[in-house]
Amino acid sequence: MSDAATPGEFELIRRYFMQDVEHACSSDHVSPSQARAGIVLGQGDDCALLSPSPGRRLAVSVDTSLADVHFPRDASAEAIGHRALAVNLSDLAAMGARPRWFVLALTLPDVDEQWLEGFARGLYGLAREHDIALVGGDITRGQELSITITVHGEVDDDSAITRHGARPGDLLAVTGTLGSAHGGLRAWFNGQRDERHPLVAAYLRPAPRIKEAMSIQQRVSAGLDISDGLLADLGHLCARSGVGACLDATALPLDQALVASLGEHEALEAALNGGDDYELLLALDPEQEDAVRQALETLGGALHVIGRVTSEPGISGVASTGRGWQHFHAADHGTGASP
Ligand SMILES: [Mg+2]
């Protein structure tokens, strides 16, 4: 992707996306810290060679983030980098997997090195927080900014959190407030450009619940991350487990800033259908409630019980016409990211 005025793909990768690669002597190919990260051969060949921990299973997930579909293109480059990795890490959290490696495919409309520097800062900031190494990728030029990330994590065979283990009588619970990200997106569309605004921050810089999931994975029956909206994702959980759910609308955790911004009715609607929360939705035996709550609180998190799993199919207890966020059903909103 080069012309005379701009650095080529390999130079851009070297400048911005090889930050954790200490140049090992040529006979070694990897540095000691890379070897500790399970990297047998890192960036610089046709493939990375990776070594999972003995006896553990790989968890792999891919997500694409498109400008003005998954994030506003005028958000800061740092926030875009953070968010693109965060939504992928959230899928590892949903399984209780420990993050290990990721690859990045970036399509850029033009080469703006200031933008790339900010993007890499946001990306690496979160990557280091969760101890996941960038081991490959590419950069191409295209009409729209597009970020595709594939994450690899690992998990013990018998302790992955799945969608299919919920049983009637289980409690349903979430790990944090719902609807705030949707409120932040609406605030953004209404002109709020302060990325530290609590609702805007909830949208642009979600915190994947990696540590939380790893600390409770053996105590929950089922779970997933809330990306499409509580009702839509609860529907996925129920379908996979062959159960139904009864929610307590009064128990849904709403941020006061969200209620202040949208009013109670709209805030509740955002919590049910807004999406982009990236909290975990968990099903757990009532006997596990105290232990799970304690584990989450130890990490500075929370457990909010919002209902119960039922044997009757369907979701009861809330009145909502929403159906969650489905990208290709939202074309009439003008931009896919609109509320
Ligand atoms: Mg998910």
TrEMBL record:
Gene3D superfamilies in the cross-refs: PurM-like C-terminal domain (3.90.650.10), PurM-like, N-terminal domain (3.30.1330.10)
Domain PurM-like C-terminal: 167-316
EC code: 2.7.4.16
Catalytic activity: thiamine phosphate + ATP = thiamine diphosphate + ADP
Keywords: ATP-binding, Kinase, Magnesium, Metal-binding, Nucleotide-binding, Thiamine biosynthesis, Transferase
Record bears the keyword Translocase: no
Binding, Mg(2+) 1: 63, 138
Binding site for Mg(2+) 5: 228
Entry similarity comment: Belongs to the thiamine-monophosphate kinase family.
Full protein name: Thiamine-monophosphate kinase
Gene designation: thiL
